[in-house]
């Protein structure tokens, strides 16, 4: 660990084997809290390479508690890194239900709030869903309903060892990146928001290296880890083994821009109100923002690469009532299992 820390302190990237060794030393108790803290800070200052992100994610994928569902190639996740500290409502969680309403199979991975006002687990629990389901129960949800939720702490026990040092250091780190890359159901498709523009390209290449079929990685230029309704968004699209980078603007789909404050909330209650309003088809800045994110989710699913068609699918999911119905049935089934 000392050798690895020395290398990081010299701003040298670690090899894939070195990062795997470091992660295993930390989660298996061979590294001290001080060394974990130094690793977090050093990696943050150096910046994580694609190889480092990939190697770390491989360890957590291997150690994750698996959810066994057939045909992972058609499974999609909407989990992002979080950590944008903007206080928006739960865009990616609402997007997951819009995608499920459009007929996609969704394996939603998520956690409680760390830096936001409301995490996906907080929102679903507030709405009445049971979130601490076993792998077998989540598999039933995905099979019967087309959407299941995997509460991260249950599926990544290996993360426990680094929780204390992460909280004490209090900066976003490589551990924020490996969570969304470690879907316990093995989803091969993903729309992923990231908290930094620098990560857009890197995370898309990491997903490619980890075997994703298609993915859309996004960062709003107003700082959001979502496709933004208030500014342009940097997009990295993984398709046919290639990563393509471009900028997207709401105007590209004839949408107006709205101030960031119009999609921000004070807590889980307000987030829940906004989420339900969107799923019921009430037009608002939040509604338009979910449509844009769902559009890219449909594209990530591989059904179509035409934005207009993808947007129509998202609109139909909401206005037919299917997206809202998925949420109602999700809550009911989670309580029964």
Automatic annotation (TrEMBL):
Pfam families membership: Glycos_trans_3N, Glycos_transf_3
Residue ranges of every copy of the Glycosyl transferase family 3 N-terminal domain listed in the record: 2-64
Residues the entry annotates as binding Mg(2+) 1: 92, 226
Residues reported in the UniProt entry to bind anthranilate 1: 80, 111
Catalytic reaction annotation: N-(5-phospho-beta-D-ribosyl)anthranilate + diphosphate = 5-phospho-alpha-D-ribose 1-diphosphate + anthranilate
GO biological process, alphabetically ordered: L-tryptophan biosynthetic process
Residues the entry annotates as binding 5-phospho-alpha-D-ribose 1-diphosphate: 80, 83-84, 88, 90-93, 108-116, 120
UniProt KW keywords: Amino-acid biosynthesis, Aromatic amino acid biosynthesis, Glycosyltransferase, Magnesium, Metal-binding, Transferase, Tryptophan biosynthesis
Gene3D superfamilies to which the protein is assigned, alphabetical: Nucleoside phosphorylase/phosphoribosyltransferase catalytic domain (3.40.1030.10), Transferase, Pyrimidine Nucleoside Phosphorylase, Chain C (1.20.970.10)
Free-text comment on the cofactor: Binds 2 magnesium ions per monomer.
Domain Glycosyl transferase family: 73-324
MF-aspect GO terms: anthranilate phosphoribosyltransferase activity; magnesium ion binding
First-level EC class: transferase
EC number: 2.4.2.18
GO CC annotation: cytosol
Cofactor: Mg(2+)
Binding-site residues for Mg(2+) 2, renumbered to this chain: 225-226
Pathway: Amino-acid biosynthesis; L-tryptophan biosynthesis; L-tryptophan from chorismate: step 2/5
Positions bound to anthranilate 2: 166
Cited function: Catalyzes the transfer of the phosphoribosyl group of 5-phosphorylribose-1-pyrophosphate (PRPP) to anthranilate to yield N-(5'-phosphoribosyl)-anthranilate (PRA).
Similarity comment: In the C-terminal section; belongs to the anthranilate phosphoribosyltransferase family.
Subunit comment: Homodimer.
Protein name (database record): Anthranilate phosphoribosyltransferase
Gene: trpD
